User: Fold this.
Amino acid sequence: MMKTRHVVVALISLALALPAFGKTSKNTYPVPCSEMWGAVKDVLSNAENYNVEESNDTLMAATYKVKHAAHVTVSGAVLQRANHVSLVSKGTECEMQVKSNYSGFEHNDSSDFRKRVEESFAKLKGAKPAEPAPPAAPAK
Assistant:
């Protein structure tokens, strides 16, 4: 009986400690970080998914909390986990580094965030106005 109690306590302690060992995922994109940062900010502006704690346009980095409606605490508050994103220039490419504190069956914060940024980037890229036409040559 006492041995079982120790095992249960150890498992609960381990389960609570695992989110502290978040990992950093890195993805490289063939665009400048200044372009990618717009997509990151667009994704983080979705208040249904994220609460931005800190954002720095100069460093192209942000700390944010993830909301998942499926995870509700006993008090009824939505569970939020703090994550970090930063963009690092690699010549003409941009490396997005996402430090996520959670990866589970229902949600993978890093992967979910990356997919949303990629979708936003494609949408923003497609929404850019076309280059203006050159002025017409004067009539003779």
About this structure: The first strand starts at residue 23 and ends at 29. Helices lie at 2-17, 33-44, 109-127. The chain has three helices and five strands. Strands lie at 23-29, 50-56, 61-72, 78-90, 93-100.
